[in-house]
């Protein structure tokens, strides 16, 4: 199944391209209206946060580059009509430009459907998107929700959603039943903020991560809400989960929770998307940035408070967990794992 990456010169598009090629999935073509020179500069350049990726980029001619010895066609088109998808045999588009999500004037419509008119079978969007024929997939959590007959669109969700669902899935499998959850994310600044807003203040922002988590883990639907705070850092974030859950255990402790997370972080079932941090204090710049897991649980911050009541003969607890994540490097790795799953399913 041949792949075209759309929006390849952006920060996420660049990382998705790198993760694909690192996984020996060579795209048939790249597209970005900025032009081949800027595409080459972006792919081979020294990123302000992540430095240089470990690959070799060479321009061959006006519409072709070479990555690690593999030739790849390059387009610089705003209009999809000018890209020969059918001639290239493209069946999957990695949509990383951000321009083909839900239509702001008609939120139920998804612009990515336009790719289908060019013979594309599946569009994998690097951002949250919802609608008919679209499913949000997170590696290690709900890949089984994918049905090739039902879904043409696949959303990679948000970085924060991934940081929530990874530990929650583990604790669900452990037997905890979540009754209610409030989360917040202390998130690095993004391009959606103005320069002055992002430089010198902590600002509140909306987040759809809690709602999206309920879509990925259906039993949590309607039981969650959340807040977002943007902080003046370039990359790296923390998601904080505070939830009431019931357990068969009458003396559940933070040690119990941490041991489960520690053990399951190496379980192949979760596809390497969950990790734990054993130190007392963690900083994003030196402990989180550069890592590609969906969630890195800071074990020292886990809290468990026994509540003075039972629910259905189970003991209720208030539990707190801190989940770190590189909001620029984790999701692209996840997107490639989702892509591999779709290729395998045909």
Topology:
Blueprint: E1 2-6, H1 11-22, E2 29-31, H2 36-44, E3 57-61, E4 64-67, E5 70-75, H3 85-88, E6 90-95, E7 122-125, E8 134-136, E9 153-155, H4 159-174, E10 177-188, H5 195-199, E11 203-205, H6 209-216, E12 224-231, E13 237-247, H7 254-264, E14 274-277, H8 284-288, E15 295-298, E16 303-311, E17 314-325, H9 330-345
Parallel strand pairs: 1-2, 1-6, 2-5, 6-7, 7-9, 8-9, 10-12, 14-15
Antiparallel strand pairs: 3-4, 4-5, 10-13, 11-12, 13-17, 15-17, 16-17
Helix pairs in contact: 1-9, 4-6, 4-7
Question: If you had to describe this structure to a student in words, what would you say it looks like?
Answer:
With 346 residues, the protein is of the alpha/beta class. The chain has nine helices and 17 strands. The mean pLDDT is 95.
Describe the structure concisely.
The chain is α/β, with parallel strands linked by helices and 346 residues long.
Helix proportion range: 10-25%
Helix/strand/pairing class, anyone?
Answer: alpha/beta
Give the overall average pLDDT: 95
Stretches where pLDDT is under 50 for at least 5 consecutive residues are none
What shape does the CA trace take? globular
Strand fraction:
25-35%
Per DSSP E runs of 2 or more residues, the count of β-strands stands at: 17
Q: What is the overall number of helices?
A: 9
N- and C-termini, Cα separation: 8 Å
The main sheet comes to: 9 strands, mixed
H-E string: EHEHEEEHEEEEHEHEHEEHEHEEEH
Question: Order of strands side by side in the largest beta sheet?
Answer: 3-4-5-2-1-6-7-9-8
Gyration radius, rounded = 21 Å
